[in-house]
Amino acid sequence: MNKNLPQENQISNSDVAIESQDEISTPRKSRIVSRFLSPALKFWLKSQLEQVEQLKVLIEGGDRQILTGKIPQVSVAASNVVFRGLNLTEIDLSATGIKINIGQVIKGKPLQILESFPLFGKLKLLQSDLNTSLQSPLLAQAVVEFLTPLLPPDFLEQLEQPISLYDQKAEIFTDRINLFANFLSTSDEKISLTLHTDLKLASSSELLLDNLDIQILQKPSYDFSNNIKIDLGSDVELKELTLNSGQLSCQGRLTVNP
User: Fold this and answer.
1) For 85-152, where are the alpha helices, taking DSSP H only?
2) Which pLDDT score is estimated for 32?
3) d(Cα 189, Cα 186) in Å, to the nearest integer?
4) Is residue 172 within 8 Å of 245, Cβ to Cβ?
5) How far is it, in rounded angstroms, from Cα 232 to Cα 200?
6) Main-chain phi, psi angles of 175, to 5 degrees
7) In a 3-state reduction of DSSP, which class is residue 258?
8) Rounded CA gap, 29 and 99, in Å?
9) What are phi and psi for residue 59, nearest 5 degrees?
10) Which residues of 37-68 are buried (b: 16+ CB within 10 A; e: fewer)?
């Protein structure tokens, strides 16, 4: 992971998504990895991420193994990752048996993932990065879709359509998260909303929002006695979710599909 790489395998400063601190290496001598697979994997990673710093990728396996069309093992560690508008402070991931189009890669074609594979690891998200993510259209829309069925109909009728969030931010505490946001009314007035909830795992693929409380400016507080579960889908299996002051971390498995 800390070996110095030949200049031809380093990513230049002109690359927007991946900076010069990046490293792609293999603990064994492999002509296919150094000449073909490393550049192809580098290009594929750049196509998936909008930004990444301090990227380290370790490819394990010899030529004979890789010629079967499977990468025996890949480990990825990175910081300040932006993926589809989501800012992740740190990630540490690993995967085995990744089936790729090695024949095409050797001919200079782009790397392609041919089969789904499990990705194991952990990530850390600081409060500042969560707040940056909340400004992204993807996460902002997800928050709107979550809140809409919970809000009273007479309140929703006052809002400009389509519903949008403004000035949204979050605070992370031990086992608890607070969300603050503004909606725009049909009369162009901002209406403040505050959400407080405990956040934990209901199961490996479900989040549990407990003691949920939503407060709207000039409206009574809405107390949800029943907890709310958010299904993360069958591709996600979380083993641990931890909220401490100012940061969130989790570890588990994610199925990556071609």
Assistant:
1) 102-106, 127-134, 137-147
2) 80
3) 7
4) yes
5) 13
6) 60, 15
7) coil
8) 20
9) -100, 125
10) bbbbbbebbbeebeebeebbbbbbbeeebbee
Count other C-beta atoms under 10 Å from residue 76's C-beta. 20
Model pLDDT for residues 106-160, shown as the tens digit of each residue: 998 999 999 999 999 999 999 999 999 999 988 999 999 999 988 888 888 889 9
Neighbours of 81 (CB within 10 A): 23
- Cα dihedral 53, 171, 202, 230 sign: negative
pLDDT at 20 (0 to 100)? 32
Between β-strands 190-203 and 176-184, what pairing exists: parallel, antiparallel or unpaired?
antiparallel
Cα 231–chain centre separation:
16
Q: Listing from the earlier edge strand, what are the strands of the sheet with 23-25?
A: 23-25, 51-60, 70-83, 86-99, 117-126, 247-256, 236-244
CB 78 within 8 A of CB 90: yes
Determine the Cα–Cα distance for residues 32 and 104; give it in Å rounded to an integer.
12
Q: Is the dihedral of CA 12, 20, 73, 249 positive or negative?
A: negative
- For the stretch 55-98, pLDDT in tens is 888 888 888 888 899 999 999 999 999 988 889 999 999 999 99
- In the DSSP assignment, the letter for residue 217 is T
What ranges in the chain are assigned the alpha helix state H?
31-32, 38-48, 63-66, 102-106, 127-134, 137-147, 153-156
Q: What is the pLDDT of residues 2-47, one digit of tens each?
A: 333 333 333 333 233 333 345 555 555 567 887 788 888 878 887 8
pTM for this structure?
0.80
